């Protein structure tokens, strides 16, 4: 199935509340990794509450387009 904004949103809707790692491209050869919890999804963006021990701010939002264009990658943690 081709990846579309609607399929990305549907997948993230089912993962609300789960822990994840966000790997973001921050420019030329620079990558930022952030750990947190997927808190909410909205029609155009989703919100991640960040781990306060690692970050100076509480939450960050990304658009579904960032996932589609591979500007960010989302890795959900396997809970055991």
Explain this structure.
The protein is of the alpha+beta class. It has one domain: Roll (SH3 type barrels), CATH 2.30.30. Helix content is 18%, strand content 42%. The chain has two helices and five strands. It has helices at residues 5-13, 64-68; strands at residues 19-25, 31-41, 45-50, 59-63, 72-76. It has a five-stranded antiparallel β-sheet. A hairpin with a 5-residue loop joins strand 1 (19-25) and strand 2. The radius of gyration is 12 Å and the shape is globular. The N and C termini lie far apart (29 Å). InterPro entries: Protein_Veg. This is Veg protein.
Short description:
The chain is α+β, with helices and mostly antiparallel strands and 80 residues long. It has 2 helices and 5 strands, in the order H-E-E-E-E-H-E.
Query: In CATH's first tier, which class applies?
Result: Mainly Beta
Estimate the helix proportion, in percent: 10-25%
Q: Which sequence of SSEs, written as H and E, runs from N to C?
A: HEEEEHE
CATH topology: SH3 type barrels
Task: Please tally the β strands and state the result.
Answer: 5
Note the main sheet: 5 strands, antiparallel
Physical arrangement of strands within the biggest beta sheet: 4-3-2-1-5
* Class derived from helix and strand content: alpha+beta
Strand content: 35-45%
User: What sort of overall outline do the alpha carbons produce when their principal axes are compared?
Assistant: globular
Count of individual domains = 1
Assign the CATH architecture.
Roll
What is the number of helical segments per DSSP (H or I, 4+ residues)? 2
Detail the poorly predicted runs. Answer: none
Would you tell me the overall average pLDDT?
Answer: 89
Distance between the termini: 29 Å
Rg is 12 Å
Protein name: Veg protein
Pfam family, one: VEG
Organism: Liquorilactobacillus oeni DSM 19972
InterPro entries: Protein_Veg
């Amino acid at each position: 199935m081709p990846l579309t904004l609607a399929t990305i949103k549907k997948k993230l809707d089912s993962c609300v509340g789960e822990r994840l790692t966000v790997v973001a491209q921050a420019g030329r050869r620079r990558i930022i990794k952030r750990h947190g919890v997927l808190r909410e999804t909205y029609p155009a963006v989703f919100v991640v509450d960040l781990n306060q021990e690692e970050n100076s701010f509480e939450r960050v939002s990304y658009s579904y387009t960032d996932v589609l264009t591979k500007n960010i990658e989302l890795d959900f943690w396997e809970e055991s």
